[in-house]
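Tokens as discussed.
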């Protein structure tokens, strides 16, 4: 049990900035992420036809259009309120009817499947999400039986992040900054082979994890532009790989750290337009 003052610790991973998922076509991605989910296409970066960045509060989805990637688990999303989300999703049922798109309301949340199979659990703002009114607070990854303890050791000892390990089912929950986390939950279900999706994180101590991966010959993209990449999560106790997930690890010197993201208010429509309501704050009032 952590003491009160220990709960102030945020660890070395201070932010999860974006999730990168390949999509096969941009029109369907616009229908789902912009019109259905109500998110915002970044107006400044990657505005061509081969990729788009989608703003969700202070986080993003990066969606290169050259294939399909699916996270084995759930992507958690906070939206200002669920009623409007459901209306937007219902309006997408016909345009996306020939895809894997679907949604349902259950237990105070809305679960959504994107046209290619990624699953989202959408929540309204709540104390467990801190001040977040719009954003990506967590990703829950499914992992093979027996791997959660090794994953926990990896994030604690290599990445310097606080981790909680629970037993039923075995789950490693990794603290990311103030209001984000990564969960790795063991399952007996069959898992598809890792397809290359990745996340981007900012760390305070950059050299410590870099040195570990360099010494163990595990770097997939070496240090440049204030970042490096790896995709092998290894148990430091056994040196065996226990999970695959590409991390784009950035230092605080990265020029995009805390780049401001524009978030539109999806409630603004022409017939009921109200001045000065075009933008949406990612923070609860």
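Sequence:
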């Amino acid at each position: 049990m952590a003491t009160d003052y220990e709960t102030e610790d945020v660890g070395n991973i201070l932010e999860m900035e974006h999730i990168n998922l390949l999509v096969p076509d941009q029109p369907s991605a616009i229908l789902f992420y912009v019109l259905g989910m109500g998110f915002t296409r970044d107006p400044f970066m990657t505005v061509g036809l081969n990729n788009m960045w989608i703003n969700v509060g202070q986080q993003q989805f990066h969606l290169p259009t050259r294939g399909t990637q699916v996270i084995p688990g759930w992507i958690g999303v906070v939206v200002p309120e669920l009623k409007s989300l459901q209306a937007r999703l219902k309006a997408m049922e016909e345009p996306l009817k020939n895809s894997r798109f679907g949604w349902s309301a259950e237990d105070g949340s809305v679960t959504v499947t994107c046209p290619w199979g990624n699953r989202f659990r959408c929540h309204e703002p709540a104390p467990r999400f801190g001040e977040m009114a719009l954003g990506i607070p967590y990703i829950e990854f499914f992992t093979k039986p027996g791997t959660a303890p090794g994953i926990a050791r990896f994030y604690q000892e290599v990445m310097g992040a606080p981790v909680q390990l629970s037993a039923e089912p075995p789950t490693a929950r990794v603290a990311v900054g103030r209001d984000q986390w990564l969960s790795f939950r063991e399952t007996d279900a069959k898992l598809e082979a890792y397809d290359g999706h990745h996340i981007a994180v900012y760390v305070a101590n950059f050299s410590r994890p870099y040195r570990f991966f360099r010494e163990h010959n595990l770097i997939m993209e070496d240090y440049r532009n204030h970042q490096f990449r790896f995709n092998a999560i290894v148990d430091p106790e056994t040196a065996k790989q226990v999970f695959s997930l590409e991390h784009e690890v950035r230092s605080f010197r990265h020029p995009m750290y805390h780049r401001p993201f524009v978030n539109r208010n999806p409630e603004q429509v022409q017939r009921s337009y109200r001045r000065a309501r075009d933008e949406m704050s990612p923070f609860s009032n």
